[in-house]
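thread from #wetlab-drylab

HS: before we spend reagent money on co-crystallization trials with dinuclear copper ion, can we at least see a predicted complex? here's what I'd submit
DV: go for it
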Amino acid sequence: MALEPRMRSLTLLVSALLALPAVAAELPENHITNIFKPLATPAESEKSIALLVFAITGFIFVGVAGLIAYTIWRYRQPSGVHQHEEPPQVYGSNQIEVAWTVLPILIVFVLIGVSARVIAAVENASPPAAALKVTIIGHQWWWEVLYPDYGIITANEIHVPATPDGKNATYLQLQSADVIHSFWLPQLSGKTDLIPNRTNFMWIDPREPGIYVGNCAEYCGTQHANMLLRVVGQDPKSFKAWTIEQQRRAVDSPNAAEGGAVFQSLACVNCHNISGLGQASSGSKFGPDLTHLMLRQTLGSGVLKNTPENLRAWVNDPQVAKPGCLMPSMKLTPDELTKVVAYLETLK
Ligand code: CUA
C-alpha cells in the first residue's frame, strides 16, 4: 500500500521527463541556451572567465586524480603477500605544508582578480546617450517590459536592435514587483537578480538578428521554470518599425469596439491593460499588457506558441498549461470564450 503514492510520483516524474521534448518542440526555432556561443559583449567576457576556470580546475583535477591513481597503483599490496604491518608514518613536512597553502591562495587570487576585472568592465560601461533604455519588471511568473522613451509596454519578449558591430547596446533596468527573480540570457549576458525595492542594471549588445531565449534563474515559486524570456534582436530598421507598431493604440484596430465591450464586461480588465480601452482598464499591471498581444510569439511567458487554438485553450483555463499561475480559469461560457478570443485576436 505504501508503495502506491511512490509509484504514482515515479509515473508522474517519468511522464514529465517524456513531456519535455514535446514542450521544447512547441517553442519557435532558434532557441539556444549555450554560454559557449556568446553573441554579445558581456556574455563573451564571461565565456573567457568560464574557460579560464575550467582550465585551472581541470588542471587541478587531473593532478589530484592522477596522484591518487598513481598512489593506489604504486603502493598496492602485491598479490600473495599478506603484510599486516603499517607502512612508515611520516609526520610533518614544512615544505609540503607551505606548498599546499600558498598555491591554492595564489590560484584563488588569480580567479578573484580576473573575475573582478570582467565584472567591473561590464558594470562600469556607461550607456551612450542614444542607447535604448528598457525597464524589465519581474512578476510571478512573467516579465513586464517597458520602453520609457517610446511609451511602449509589452511582456515577455524584448525587442532590441542588433548589429554586427555591437554599436547598438540596450541598457536594462531590472526591477521586481514581488519576489527575487533573475534575468538570464545565456548568449547575451550573465545572470542579474531582480530585487524588490531595488534597481539593478545590465546591458546587451546582440551581434546577430534573431531570437535569444532565456529563463528566470532564481527560484521564485511554482512556475519559476516556466518564466521564460526571449530577446528579439532586429536590424535597426525593423526595430524602428516595431516601435511604431507598438505605439498604436488598440482602439485603432477594426472591430475593436464590440469585442472591447465584451472584454470589459468580464473580470479580465481587473488585471490586464489594453491601451485605448478606456478608464476601466487603464493602469492595471497585475497581468501582462495585452495591447499588441497578437504580435507576440508565445503565450503564458513562453509556455505556449501563440496560435488561435492555444489562445482559446489558455483563456479557457490557464491552469492546464501553467498550473499554479496567478491567472484563474474565468469559467467563461463557450459563447463568451469565443467572443473574448475573437477580440483578443484583433490586438495586433
Ligand atoms: Cu522568476 Cu524564477
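DV: The pocket of dinuclear copper ion is lined by residues 138, 141, 181, 216, 218-220, 224, 227 (CB under 6 Å).
HS: ok that's useful, forwarding to the group
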